Structure formats: structure tokens, C-alpha cells
Amino acid sequence: MTPATLSTPTADQAPSEPIAQPLFIGPLKVDPPILQAPMAGFTNYAFRQIVREFGGAGLLATEMVNARGFVWLDENEAEHPDRLWGVADEPRPLAVQIWDNDPPTLAKVGRRLVEEYGVSVVDINFGCPVRQVTQKAHSGSYLLSQPGRMGAIIEQVVAACAPTPVTAKIRLGCTRDQINAIDIAQVVEGSGAAALTVHGRTAADMFRGSADWDRIAEIKPYLKRIPLIGNGDLDSAEKVLDAFRRYPVDGVMIARACLNKPWLFAQAAAAVRGLPVPPDPTLEEERELLLYHFKLVCERFGTKKAAVLMRKYACCYAQGRPGAREFRKHVAVIESVEDFHEIVERYFPRSS
């Protein structure tokens, strides 16, 4: 089963007025203005294909790519990162997110992504709070304390990638005592970026607490020409609709919630267009979707590696359901196609 075969509503009512208009990232029209967040370890080609088949995402994104690692692989004539699996051939629009702290390295990789992969958008990560990226590599959200370096990075990447638009993703600041998103937003725009995405937490927050959308909204008056995209805690079509109604954002980005609901984009897109919201798939349909997802990963990595990679995805699909813990316990040790199919059949939740 593919997402295209899942149940859809009967649109027996006329649509109301759309709540949100398309946004433009440079010359690129994003319609609907609902973006899929880049998430390390998850938003690979197989996941993006599933999201694309459901529909509703105006712009999809890869996992974030380590620019320095990309250069090393290139110089040593190794295969380019697995995180670029499928990028050259899949439908557009598509964004690739890169991270590092060295302007020339990021500019070099950005140019390669434009020239060799033909990406629609190059996004720079200034928001990742993970220690390996911040403290060890002095990248991601670490750079929020160094606006001058951020500006230099953006300027060089913009120049290298032109005319392909370059965007930036940030958090509110490093800590609650160091919220500087307004100042950073002006640096981002002044350095030539074509859009800004803001996650409504600080780096120190990680993913604790709630995203502060009021703080995101405060940034809007300080941006003169580029769109503001809000990110954080959007786990339902109703919350997406509420974000557009309550806050002056031009677009929204859905992150962790889509990992166990890849159909969320289609639901959100219907809501902001004033159309009936499609229902969630049945658990039987979700089970078949999980097997389809596994098949896509197998085609790239072979069955043994795919079995390991699918452990985390399988847990996402079962999240919040009765029996999810028992399912996770068994799926965590799968090693073969037979194991995967048997465990999904026996233990995947059968009730909500």
C-alpha cells in the first residue's frame, strides 16, 4: 500500500476562504506555505517520498548535511553522504540543509549542491542544539552567540549559490537569558538570506517545555523583505491553522510530529485552504504504510541495514498507542525482513 491509496474525505462542501497565502523564498513559490523540517536521522529519501505521496508539504527538506564531511568525502573520491540519497532525481522543490562554522567550506558545499544536485533551496542550520554540533563543532545554535560569523557565512553562501535562494534556521537564542532572535533576524536578512525559520525554543531548552510563538511573532516587524516561518509544537491541523490565525508568520514548519504522522501535511494544507480535513489512516492502513516505508529503505540500503534503520521509524508509527511499549521492545532487535514483517503483524498496535 502507498499513501495515495489511503482513505480520503469526500469533499462535499465548498471550500471557505484560504487562511494562508503562498510564500516566496526568492523566486521560489511555496504553496501551501507549510514546510517539512530537516531532521537528522529521519528525513531521508524514503520518508520524503511518503510525505510527497500524501501531499500537503509546500517544501521538503533533507537531513542536515555536515559540510566538512561532504568535502572530505569528495576529496577522497568516496560516495557522497547517505543524507543526499535520492536528491539528484526526486521531484522539486527540495531544500538541502547544511551545517558547519567555516564560511568558505559552507560556500563550497552550497555551490556543489546547486550545480550538481540542482537543489531548490540551500538552508543553513543555526538552530541545532545537540552537543556534538554545538560544543564539539561550534556550529548550529552555538553560532547564535556569534552574529558576525553568521553574517559572514550567509554572505559567502548566498554569493556562491546565486541565483538559488539561501535560507537560515535559528532558535530564539542560546538560553532564556540570551534571547537575541530579533538581532539575529536582522543579520540574516541583511546578509542576503531569502527566508528565516525560527524555532520557538532556545538551544538550552532542547525540546523541553513549549515553543514560544509570541517570541517568534515579535520578530516579524523587523523583517523588511523576507518571509518569517514559525516552527515548534505543530502536531495537528488545528494547531497549524491557529498559528496562521494568531501570529504574523508567512509560513510554518512541521518537525517531530510528522514522524509518526506523515499525512499531517495533507491535513494541515486542507485546513488552511478551507477544505475538509482528511481523517487519519486506520491502524491497518498505518501497518501497511510501515511495511511500504520498510520496502523503500530496503531498496537503498539492503535488507540487513534497512532492518536496523527502520527500528526508530517503526517506533514513531506506534507512538502513543496501546501496546506501543511491547511493540518497541520487539522491533528494537529486528535483523531481517522476516523479523520485521512478523513483529509488525504480531505486535503493531491494533487499537487507538
From TrEMBL:
Its EC number is 1.3.1.-. CDD domains: DUS_like_FMN (cd02801). Keywords: Flavoprotein, FMN, NADP, Nucleotide-binding, Oxidoreductase, RNA-binding, tRNA processing, tRNA-binding. It catalyses: a 5,6-dihydrouridine in tRNA + NADP(+) = a uridine in tRNA + NADPH + H(+); a 5,6-dihydrouridine in tRNA + NAD(+) = a uridine in tRNA + NADH + H(+). It is an enzyme of class 1 (oxidoreductase). FMN binds at residues 38-40, 97, 169, 199, 255-256. Its cofactor is FMN. PROSITE patterns: UPF0034 (PS01136). It holds the Pfam family Dus. The active site is at 128 (proton donor). It comes from the Bacteria. Belongs to the dus family. Catalyzes the synthesis of 5,6-dihydrouridine (D), a modified base found in the D-loop of most tRNAs, via the reduction of the C5-C6 double bond in target uridines. This is tRNA-dihydrouridine synthase. It comes from Adhaeretor mobilis. The gene is dus_1.
